[in-house]
Write a structure and sequence with these properties.
The chain has about 280 residues and is mainly beta. Helices cover about 10% and strands about 40% of the residues.
Length: about 280
């Protein structure tokens, strides 16, 4: 009888330890952080802005073009690197409407439901300037305005976050401002959403304070957002002369969803615990 007990323990104990190790490692997702993007078909673009892969969309085929030329920085918030943008060179990353994947929200002829999230750190740049985080917004005379998330840098170094949409077939625009301002050289997680009824949300995390910046700016635009064939530009916007209103600083981990995320879901994408 004792012989059989010893054999049984020898077989079961290694199996128990091995199984426990798997449970501890996986944490419920596809990575050690517990984040699993593969479960959400509504995530249509994921630009991690990693060194050697600044233009790569790790989720789909929305490959960017590097303009004048964005480099990498080891100062990052997700992954190993972020994208470093210099406004004096009008550096930005872009993709034309025609090259966007067919499921990309606000692609010409597509849906208005969209959420965009990104880490951003504005470190300098000329005062009283627009520091574009990401846009699909072509200025006069192009008149291809859909949406633009912008950081207005005042002469006092104060950052005002703005969400602007185009209407009237992209020829006109209206915008709203987040009520609480930011400052230079701080990482912020900036998220905005717009639905098919023109309801919007701006939600911002202040990493220096480890807290949500003020309260979310929510409401409904007076006009309906135009869905026109403008370029998507990370770190800038564009007009007939080229790229402009570019940013001076860092951008990391840009995510685009074709639906409106809840505040809790936005927070999960920031915490790397997003696992729908």
């Amino acid at each position: 009888m004792k012989k059989y007990i010893l054999i049984l323990l020898f077989i079961l104990m290694p199996v128990t330890v091995w199984a426990w190790g798997i449970i501890t490692f996986t944490g419920g997702g596809s990575s050690s952080s517990g984040e699993d993007w593969t479960k959400d078909a509504d995530l249509v673009a994921l630009w991690n802005l990693e060194d050697g892969a600044l233009i790569t969309d790790s989720r789909s085929t929305n490959t960017l073009t590097n303009n004048d030329t964005v480099t990498s920085s080891a100062d990052e918030m997700q992954g190993d690197y972020s994208g470093a943008f210099d406004e004096t060179n009008d550096e930005c990353l872009s993709i034309t409407d025609a090259n966007l994947h067919s499921n990309f929200p606000t692609k010409s002829g597509g849906s208005a439901n969209i959420t965009v999230c990104a880490w951003v750190k504005i470190d300098s740049g000329a005062a009283v300037t627009n520091q574009t985080i990401i846009s699909k917004f072509g200025y006069t005379p192009l008149e291809l305005k859909s949406w633009w998330i912008n950081a207005w840098h005042s002469s006092q170094g104060v950052i005002t976050f703005e969400l602007i949409i185009g209407y009237n077939s992209g020829a006109s625009h209206e915008g709203v401002e987040h009520a609480t301002t930011g400052v230079l050289n701080v990482w912020y997680y900036v998220a905005f959403s717009i639905d098919n009824s023109d309801n919007y949300r701006i939600r911002i995390w202040d990493d220096n304070a480890s807290a949500i910046l003020g309260v979310d700016k929510t409401g409904t635009f007076t006009n309906s957002m135009s869905i026109v064939a403008g370029e998507v530009v990370v770190g800038g916007a564009y007009d007939d002369s080229g790229y402009d209103r570019t940013m001076d600083g860092l951008i990391d981990s840009v995510k685009v969803f074709k639906r409106v995320l809840t505040p809790d879901e936005i927070d999960a994408t920031r915490n790397e615990t997003y696992n729908p």
